Amino acid sequence: MKVVGISASNMGTKTRIAMDYTMQVINEKYPDAITTLIDLAEVDVVFSDGRNYMDYEDDTKMVTETLMAADAIIIGTPIFQASIPATLKNIFDLLPENAFRDKVVSIIVTAGSSKHFLIADHQLKPILAYMKAQIVQTYVFIEDMDFYRKKIINDDVLFRIDRLVEDTMLMAEVQQKIREAQDSIYGF
C-alpha cells in the first residue's frame, strides 16, 4: 500500500513536525507500507495553468504523479488567515476532478488558535469530497500550545495521530478490498 503524506505549507515548522511524527508511526506500525512525505517547502511546484497533470515537469510532475499513485494520503496543513494555504489549493488545482477516487484521505491541521477548528470541515473536506476522496471523518487539530522546542508535547495529540493513522490504514485496506471485488467481476 502506498501512503503519501503532504506537509502543505512553504513556511513554518509545526505542520512538518506533525507530519514527521505521523510518517514515523506509519513506518513503525505498518512496515509493509510504502511511504512518501512531500514537504511543499522543499519542492518547486508551479501554479496550475489547466494542463493535464502528466504534462507538467520536474517537481510539479513528481508531486502530482506521486499523489495519483497513492492508495492513502494524509494531508497536514496549517491554517493561515482562517483558510488553507495557497500551496495546498494549488495542488488540488493541478490534479483532475476525480484525482482522489478510491483513495483514502485524512487530515491533520495545525493552527495558532482554537478559533480555526472548523476550517477543515468548511473548506478542506468539501474540496476532497468533490475530488471523490474517501475521507476519514475525524481529523487531528493541533494548536501552537501543543508544541514546545520543535516537539509535540501534548500526549492527547500524539494519541489522536496514532488513532488517525490506524483509521486511515484500516479504511485504505477496506477500500483496496472493495476495488479488488469490483475488478474480479470483470474477470480480467
TrEMBL record:
Q: Which Pfam families match?
A: FMN_red
Keywords for this entry?
Flavoprotein, FMN, Oxidoreductase
List where this protein forms a coiled coil.
Answer: none
InterPro entries tied to this protein: Flavoprotein-like_sf, FMN_Rdtase-like_dom, NAD(P)H-dep_FMN_reductase
Tell me which residues make up the NADPH-dependent FMN reductase-like domain.
1-142
Protein name (database record): NAD(P)H-dependent oxidoreductase
Taxonomic source organism: Fundicoccus culcitae
